[in-house]
Task: structure prediction
Amino acid sequence: MRRRDYLLLALLGLAAVALVGAFQPSPGYLDADYYYAGGLQLAAGRGFTEPYLWNYLDDPAGLPHPSHTYWMPLASILAAVVPALFGPVSWFAARIPFFLIAASLPPLIAALAFSLTSRRPLALTSGLLAVFSGLYLPFLATTDTFGLYMLFGGLYFLIVNRKLSIVNSFLLGLLSGLMHLSRADGLLWLALAFTAILLLHKAGQSLRSTLFTLFSVLLGYLLVMFPWFARNYAAFGSFLAPGGSKMLWLTAYDQIFSYPASTLTFEAWRDSGLGEILQARLWALGLNAANTLTVQGSIFLLPLIVIGAWQTRKNKTVQLSLLAWLLTLAAMTLAFPFAGARGGYFHSGAALQPLWWALAPLGLERLIEWGRARRGWNVAQARPLFLGALVGMALLLTGMAIMLRLPTWGNENDAYNQIGNYLVEQDMLNEEVVIVANPPGFYLASGNPAIAVPDCDPLALLEAARRYQAGYLILEQGSTPASLMPVYENPAEFPDLTYLGEVEGARLYAIQP
Result:
């Protein structure tokens, strides 16, 4: 591979993500809204606090609340960098680090592919697959962890594919820490780093040397994570933020927003019945399998990835990647089926995507060799034709993903702007707390503090409103929990709520003090 190859791939990656980002007027959905709003808080000097609650898992005392008790902080830290250093705060400025990360992915993945195959045409094809990244591309341009996980995952596998050393082990620890600082399931990659050391352990290597290598992994990990553990301990009295363990006991997705969260217990989960427990996991397995086919495998790439993995099955890097995929799938299907099936597996799988893109052209090369042996294909003619077709199909799928996602990207933000303006006309104050489906999104649109629509009965809703001093309730069509549908459908039956009207399909209520 030549330097200009890497430079060209980086420029293409930057052009692709910038083009998509130009049509994204706002973060676009809850996760990205949360990370962006957290970045604004940091850039404004307010630290790791938030004037909104999107769940009640840690039994929050009130607003403002310590931030990142569920999602990890690295994406918010990145979103704060440019505004904090140069100002002013803007949506474009917050995304600059994410654009640069996306631009780094094609050359990184080409380097990973070249380390596996030593074949420049295959490596270039892998890099182009990362440029035209299918369903992932719209999410690389917003404030989320997809690009981070791809970057760290690609570097992780690149290091694993190198000679084992203390320095490389330390780097694996650093990457494990960065992955954990990006997502809670990043802790899995620390365990995988230890596994990689054992896989790469050479016969005759002393136990002392192996332990020292393992310690270097742990040291790198703690160098990244210890400050965050210290923050958590200062804020909550524990190294990990409270409430996350309650995710194990969900029996329905909406229970993420349960109020009070004390209803989420092992006993309630057990009492839901073995049939319900198994059915939820089979449902999650089906959705995660579909994600593997359509997102990770881009439909047409999956058979080639499987062939490429089989061809390199003795490679320790490939073995580790398959273990990582199985553990990720198991965690997002068995332990966290609802969060996993509704986006967790999509996010977590991004770490493995660099290797899948590296393996796909190798699988295609094997098919070309089969054609030469069985059909008499001219390899010199077939190879560029098929590799070009592969990139063309990736470009087509990416175009379809963009046309599917971008036209409605800013709709929620626009709706929240209109709702916020309407409530101001109803005498809503700037500091008034609003109950809404996407609290960080509403905060970004209106500037008002906000808390999540809880999954509870109407009486508990009023209790939550009074506890957090909320003055208004917004119930949106399609995102109102079943337990609160009576309020949405028959507002006159609830005297503690004053129905104000409907804006953009959302019904608005003033909550009586």
